[in-house]
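Q: What does the assembled structure look like for these inputs?
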Amino acid sequence: MIRVENLNKAFNGKPVLTDISVTFEPGITNLIIGRSGSGKTVLLKSIVGLHEIDSGNIWYDDKLFNKLEFREKKEIRKEIGMLFQGSALFDSRTVEENVRFPLDMFTDQSLEEKTERVNFCLDRVNIKNANKLFPSELSGGMKKRVAIARAIALNPKYLFCDEPNSGLDPLTAILIDELIKEITEEYSMTTIVNTHDMNSVMKIGEKIIFLSDGILCWEGSNKEILDSDCSTLNDFVFANALAKQLKKSPK
Amino acid sequence: MAHKNEIMIIRFFEQVGAYFILLRKVLSRPEKPYVYYKQTMHEMVFLGLNSVGIIAVISFFMGAVITLQTAYNTENPIYPTYLIGLGCRDSILLEFSSTITGLILAGKVGSSIASEIGTMRVTEQIDALEIMGVNSASYLILPKIIATLLFNPVLTLISISVGIFGGWIAGTTAGVITSEDFIYGIQYAFIPYYVTYAIIKTLFFAFIIATVSAYHGYRIEGGSLEVGQASTKAVVHSSILILLFNVILTQLLLS
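A:
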């Protein structure tokens, strides 16, 4: 479980996140949604410690993450997997080496054991016969899947995904969403996904928080989101003409 | 105007401070020495071995020009011709092989380090390392420092040898000196300390190239435009520091 309490963050005096308090439960897919520039990525990066927060607390289970020393933070980071918007695979390493990297750095396993784990993770994300390929030889969807395989290589307790569907076609996006949901349930991870893709929201949004201008405006699930009376959320959810029409039509 | 100067001075000291903070992070104890060893070997090939060609070509022609210029500027019966060989040897040994090699490597290796690390920064690969709990500064930069410290002296020795060889070829081909006189000249009054001096300078220059370039790459904020700018800054700042330290080291080591 990850708990955020009264988080504030500003860049050059301009507030980006204001008084955010939220709890992310394990075993379900937690979504952070909002328009571009609403503070989703800053919130995600603040939670994982890539941004120093100005005030507030971030708890990883019973550990106050933002007050920990570098070494203690490092121990928690070994339990974190993250899928970046652009996949962030290491260009100079093959698919196999990318997935093996966390194992090389943090385990004393033999090469055979590591290779077995790499193949298991790649198999889990449906990547076949691509061990020796470099990231530049992969499609966008494959890159995302390899990045997920790398993120789960060390069996993390926490999984963060920053816009996992960006740049993907709708079908591949659905596959990635399903994969994230399956893995979350399978390993009982605390998963937080940043997205502005409504398909993802409806498909995997078991818990959703909506940010607008750095303020948490709404919290609920995909079953509740269509009936919300939050106007900024409704503007976001029913942004396109078809959605507006559906909203007006009788249930 | 005075306010602008103050801001520039503050920025300068901020940058110097940030450079030393990064160095502290880089020089912390590696967690997995074997991974670092592999990475260092890779960097030695990428940054060192791949530079042998350009260093050899430039040194050859540098030696050739030094020999011809020395010959044409000492066309006087008072001077023995073997002084051309001696002049070529000492110019290459004392100055050209270490400093010019340093400047060439600042361009080739420095821009490569800055753009590689900078691209990793803008494509979030460095963030990915940090998230995993890896000391990204140490993992990415320390192997480059070790590789350049180990390999650049080898490049300097290659440069010295090829430079003198180039001088011999040019001198004898142009007919400005006989082979015997040139070889006598490069052996005459040889001071072995000059080689040590060249190696010491090279070690300083290697450290400057690797760390200054890595610093500019590591601190990038933005996109591909900033990668290009960082690469240029890396070359300019490394070159200026090399020239500055050239003066300081020459005074310290030869006075």
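The two ends of chain A are 36 Å apart (CA to CA).
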